[in-house]
Amino acid sequence: MKAAVITFPGTNRESDVARALTASGAQVSHIWHGDHELPQGTDLVVLPGGFSYGDYLRCGAIAGRAHVMDAVRAHAARGGLVLGICNGFQILVESGLLPGVLMRNAGLKFVCRMQHLRVERADTRFSAQYTRHQSIEVCIAHGEGNYEADDDTIARLEGEGLVAFRYCDAAGHVGGESNPNGSRNDIAGIYSPGLNVLGMMPHPENLIEAIIGGVDGRGLFESLCA
Amino acid sequence: MKARVFVTLKNGVLDPQGKAIEGALKSLDVPGVTSVRQGKVFDIELAAGDAAHAQAALKVACEKLLANMVIENYQIEI
Predict the structure, then answer these.
(1) Which residues, 6 or more positions from A122, have their beta carbon under 8 angstroms from its beta carbon?
(2) Among A65, A104, A149, whose Cβ lies nearest the Cβ of B65?
(3) Which of A47, A71, A90, A112 could form a disulfide with A84 if both were Cys (CB 3.0 to 4.6 A apart)?
């Protein structure tokens, strides 16, 4: 697995996600946002979390139009894997690689805490090491994670099974108090129709070692590297 | 040439920030406030040219970057 982690000005989670990938056996190269090409043989592109361009204009808006995103779009169109975490998810929706938009949290607060997610399907390149409807504990840290899309888009995502993760409690019950940001249908992450692009607000890369709180995030990186 | 671009949320899109500002105005006893929606204003200077070209360039600017067409509308004043 050859992974390319893209860094924009203001990205701050590139080292964490590179560490999680390396721990699962990936070869990682770091790409700067001004680059026009991905390294030869790139299997997976990662857009890490952070605050690209200071969240100016809209979260992910400026990064979504950076030169390197043309290469990412071409990679995705060829069926290449793309993972966007947190600000990376915001960049994916702003770049048009995934539908919808991430709005200000319904409660208006930046939410930074541990969070359970229900794995909606365990048959993708990102999730094969989990089981369907497993409740995993990772963490969230965002102010704009309130996933919204028009009714047709939501119906299509649900109808085609493109919801990757939903916010739930420890027992796996979805929604209610466990929805931290007001996202439609408790959506925490979505796939592209080809299941090769995943955008998610939570941070699996934080939860790869017991000493820092848990290992439930490992499954995603181990799935990618399997 | 100077232009002003307004970017506002489409009708029906939830605006938590506007709601919070609306609540704050009500708590300040500003009379008669029934609703607040928050938007953005961009003051843009363009190299001298005719208004039609400026309008066309700003339309591109809005649709490529300034507005997220999923949730926002734009209005151009030249």
Answers:
(1) A128, A129, A130, A131, A132, A134
(2) A65
(3) A47
Taking CB atoms and an 8 Å limit, are A106 and B71 in contact across chains? no
* Number of CB atoms found within 10 A of residue A193's CB: 11
What does the alpha-carbon distance between residue B24 and residue B45 come to, in Å, rounded to a whole number? 34
Is residue A91 a contact partner of residue A10, using CB atoms and an 8 Å limit? no
Q: Which chain A residues touch B16 with a CB distance below 8 Å?
A: 103-108, 146, 182
pLDDT at A192 over 90: yes
Q: Are A110 and A181 in contact (CB under 8 A)?
A: no
CB–CB contact A104 B17 (8 Å) = yes
pLDDT in tens, B10-41: 998 888 889 889 999 999 999 999 999 999 99
Q: Are B66 and B7 in contact (CB under 8 A)?
A: yes
Ordered structural domains, chain A, with CATH: 2-225 (3.40.50.880)
Strand A197-200 with A81-85, pairing? parallel
**Fold classified for B2-77:** Mth169; Chain: A , (3.30.1280)
List the beta bridge partners of residue A118. Answer: A135, A166
ipTM associated with this complex: 0.81
Distance between CA atoms of A222 and A63, rounded to whole angstroms? 28
Q: Give exposure, A130-140, as e/b (b: 16+ Cβ within 10 Å).
A: beeebbbbbbb
Q: Could you tell me which chain A residue has the CA closest to the CA of B21? A: A108
**Cα radius of gyration rounded to whole Å, chain B:** 16
Domain map (residue ranges) of chain B: 2-77
